[in-house]
């Protein structure tokens, strides 16, 4: 696929992200959706359902001994160890908890489904979280896909001794990790899972089922920009470019800060020959996103992890202009400046963090900065003032 602009380099599918609605029904919203889908001839899997046999086996292997965090870590070891499940990563493979257990493989969504289901069977109150600042980008048959990364959390960062984030077997307690993740309610995680299933069906050539799933959630979860985005790509794949363009243009109006919609709307406009609209959408997307704090933070994180520290620092500074007292933004800005060798600006950001009201987060961020950059504990790091000439 040949790109006509930087913004429209390729169609972009979104995996593992979105929001869900709520309902006053006594049953859970996910149970209602499963029943409604069945009435339409569509089978939706329950991502957290596991068999009684699986629950019993895990309870025997792991047990209830220890704190909630101790039980969670034992489940993590059970999933990873050779004498346990020996769970293996497999990209682009989102499975329900029961299927992931049977297959002993899957992507981050599969792992999160399985870990949440098994941990809760041991009365560990874990929750889904997702990392949205560092989306994973991959390519399949000329199309580009972007996925926010799913993980599992216990507790809150204010209670470090009993809190943890489990990211596909890696356990973290650092505030740097907590600062990257957002909580995901179960209903939202359900939508994310079904969205992934639809994408997998589309990649496998089953565009009929993919479209059915996406249309179902486009009606019931109207605040999820990923759903119309992916539905538009099914439409483009099946030759309905104008319908896709109309859907994307309407979605851009509803979700003006959702980057993939612009890329795909520009691509759809090119396909139907509406170059004026493509140019307008591209310009509007670039203008809106360039000053968007989340966009700049995202770009800063990409640059930082690519080793482009000066570029990352500039992006973090732009994000800070909209939220100047955010200690996490200040900490990332300080880290980028220090890594780039701009010690003076980095130390200025550190001092701004120190001037903020005391908190556990502030203390932990400062501690982690000091561990990464020991020179922070050496005041002479700042350039000394020039010495006055001695009188002769």
How would you sum up this structure, described in words?
- This protein is α/β, with parallel strands linked by helices.
- 54% of the residues lie in helices and 11% in strands.
- It folds into two domains: 12-216, C8orf32 fold (Roll), CATH 3.10.620; 293-377, Tetratricopeptide repeat domain (Serine Threonine Protein Phosphatase 5, Tetratricopeptide repeat, Alpha Horseshoe).
- It has helices spanning 29-39, 52-62, 68-80, 97-103, 108-121, 175-178, 186-203, 207-220, 226-237, 241-254, 259-271, 275-290, 293-305, 309-320, 327-339, 343-354, 360-372; strands at residues 12-15, 88-89, 105-106, 127-140, 143-154, 164-167, 170-172, 181-184.
- The strands form two sheets. Strands 1, 4, 5, 6, 7 and 8 form a six-stranded mixed beta sheet that branches. Strands 2-3 form a two-stranded parallel ribbon.
- A hairpin with a 2-residue loop joins strand 4 and strand 5.
- It starts with 11 loop residues before the first strand and ends in a 20-residue tail after the last helix.
- 40% of the residues are buried.
- Residues 1-10, 17-24, 134-145 and 380-392 have low confidence and may be disordered.
């Amino acid at each position: 696929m040949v790109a006509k602009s930087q913004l429209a380099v390729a169609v972009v599918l979104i995996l593992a992200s979105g929001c869900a609605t709520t309902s006053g029904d006594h049953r859970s919203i996910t149970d209602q959706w499963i029943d409604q889908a069945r009435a339409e001839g569509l089978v939706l899997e329950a991502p957290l359902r596991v068999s009684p046999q699986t629950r019993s086996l895990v309870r025997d292997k792991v047990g209830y001994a220890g704190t909630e965090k101790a039980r969670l870590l034992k489940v993590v070891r059970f999933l990873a160890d050779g004498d346990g499940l020996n769970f293996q990563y497999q990209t682009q493979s989102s499975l329900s908890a029961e299927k992931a257990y049977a297959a002993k493989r899957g992507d981050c969504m599969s792992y999160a489904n399985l870990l949440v289901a098994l941990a809760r069977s041991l009365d560990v109150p874990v929750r889904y979280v997702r990392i949205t600042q560092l989306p994973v980008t991959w390519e399949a048959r000329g199309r580009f896909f972007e996925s926010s990364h799913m993980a599992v959390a216990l507790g809150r960062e204010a209670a470090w001794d009993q809190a943890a984030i489990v990211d596909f077997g890696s356990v973290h307690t650092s505030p740097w990790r907590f600062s990257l993740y957002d909580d995901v309610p179960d209903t939202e995680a359900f939508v994310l899972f079904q969205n992934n299933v639809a994408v997998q069906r589309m990649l496998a050539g089953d565009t009929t089922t993919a479209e059915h799933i996406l249309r179902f959630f486009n009606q019931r979860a109207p605040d999820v920009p990923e759903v119309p985005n992916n539905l538009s790509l099914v439409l483009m794949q099946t030759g309905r470019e104008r319908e896709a363009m109309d859907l994307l243009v309407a979605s851009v109006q509803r979700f003006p800060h959702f980057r993939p919609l612009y890329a795909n709307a520009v691509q759809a406009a090119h396909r139907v020959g509406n170059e004026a609209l493509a140019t307008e959408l591209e310009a509007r997307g670039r203008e809106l996103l360039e000053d968007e704090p989340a966009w700049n933070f995202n770009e800063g994180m990409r640059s930082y992890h690519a080793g482009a520290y000066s570029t990352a620092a500039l992006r973090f500074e732009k994000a800070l202009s909209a939220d100047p007292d955010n200690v996490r933004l200040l900490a990332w800005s300080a880290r980028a400046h220090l890594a780039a060798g701009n010690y003076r600006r980095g130390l200025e950001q550190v001092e701004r963090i120190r001037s903020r009201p005391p908190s556990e987060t502030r203390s932990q961020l400062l501690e982690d900065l000091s561990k990464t950059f020991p020179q922070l504990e050496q005041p002479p790091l700042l350039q000394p003032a020039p010495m006055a000439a001695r009188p002769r």
